Every structure is written in structure tokens, then in C-alpha cells.
Amino acid sequence: MKQSKTKSIEEKRKAFKAKINGEGIVLPGAYNALTAKQIQQVGFEGVYISGAALSASAGLPDIGLLTLSEFSFFIKYITQAVDLPCIADADTGFGEVVNVVRTVQELESIGLAGMHMEDQVMPKRCGHLPGKTLISEKNMCAKIQAACSARKDENFLIIARTDARSGEGFDNAISRAKAYVEAGADLIFPEALQTKEEFKQFAKEINVPLLANMTEFGVSPLMSAQELFSIGYKIVIFPVSALRVTMKNTQVLYQEIKNEGAQKSFLNKMQTRQELYDLIDYDAYAKLDKKAANYKLKNNESK
User: Fold this and answer.
1) Which of 55, 108, 146, 205 is 20 to 30 A removed from 75 (C-alpha atoms)?
2) Which of 62, 108, 119, 163 is catalytic?
3) Number of alpha carbons in the 13 Å side-chain half-sphere of residue 205
């Protein structure tokens, strides 16, 4: 059972924002509460919640099929499971300007430290696939302004993602990013930059903190967090890494069980029962249950 929080969500958001404006932060991706708890257990200082990973874990492609209610349902399990600040993918804001207002209100209320939304037309596509279509710069700026106005806590981060690099070119991506900063975005997320030099040039052009996406098997070069921090990026996310590792290894496990009718050769690759219980704090719940049973027994005896 999670310990009592030493900081309120407002305090955590303020500290998170200060860290971003300072040395920067690495955010591994969680696709459920259990992986978020592992991120905290290892010692990271924040969690990233990927829309692609949430969609995949629901057996769906990353094309905007999950609704705001479904996103919120999954995300709330994560924010309640850890004491770390979490930021989440909000796709296109789940609609037009009025929908963006509702999205910010909902995601802020469930304990996130921030969210990002992109400038794609619905139905959207994965950021590292071709064929993306963008809404107008004016429309995206209106969404950003609405998002900033809708938040109650000024430290709830509004992150604007632009997918312009692949469809409109690098220069237009820079131009859009500057407009999004003027509209009030706290950070810019340039998706699918194609070279290290583009990452460097983007950082030189934009005067707010930047988010770098180090997703695997995409069009961007894989760079270390230290390298990205050194050129000016402040958040580095690894959105789907855990999901990909998990799926690859479970595929091999299932094949072994299919072929051999046993899983014994995988025992040394498994999280033990005790390790799982420690992660989910099983003993704390057992103690609470025992305490409740004792209270009920004493109460009945006193009657």
C-alpha cells in the first residue's frame, strides 16, 4: 500500500517544473500501474505515459481510438500507484478547442503533472509513420491557448507537440514551434526529427524547454539523455521501451510453453512471487485486512 504522500500534487508539479527548467529529467514509459511502480522502485524521478503504449496494451493501434474517458481510466491507476510526477500523451486533445478544455480539466484532476497534445488531424497516426496530415497553425494555437486557460494550476505543464517535420519540413516545424510558444506552450515536443544535427538546430531556435522522444525503430537517431541534455533538451522520454521488451520476452516464453509444455527454463528470467509482492506492497494490504478483522471481532464481542 502506498505511503502517505509527503508532497501535494501542487508541490510535486512545482518541483517537477523547476527540475525541467534546471538540469532536466529522464522519463521512462509506463503502460500500466505495475510498470510505473517499477520506475519508482528503480529510482527515476518521473513517469511518462504513452498513448501508443496504452493503445497497444488495449490491443489497438495508435490512431486515436481510445477516448478521453478510457485514457483517464488507465492513467488514474498509474497516478494513484506512485508518488512520482507523471506526464501523459493526450493525442490531439480529443477534439476541437472545447474538447481540449475538457481534456485539461480531466487530466489535471486525476493527478498528472502535465500533458502534451499534437497538431495532427484526426484520425491521427503514429509520429514516426509517413502520411500524417496537420491542422492549421492557427487552429493549434487556439487549442494551446484554450489548454493554458483551462488549467487551474499554473504548474500543470502544457506541452505542444509538432509533427510538421515529416510532412512540412524542418523549417516549418521550427516556425510552428515558435508560434506554439507564443500561444503559451510551456514546452515543445518536436516529433520525428531525423538527424542529430536537427536536434541541435531545433534547440538553438526555440527558447522554451524541449522534449526529446527516444523511441526505438523510428526515424530519429537514438541519443543518450546526457547527450540531449548537453544540447538543451530538458525531458527525454523512452515511451514504448518497456512494452517492447515485455512483448518480445513473453512471445518467447509462450513459444517455449507451446513447444515444450513447460516454463522451467525461464524461471531465472522471471520476477519472483516475493519480488512482485514487494513491488505491490502486498504485506501492507494483508496487515490492513487483519486489522479490520480484529476490529470487527472486538466490536462484536463488546455487544
Assistant:
1) 146
2) 62
3) 18
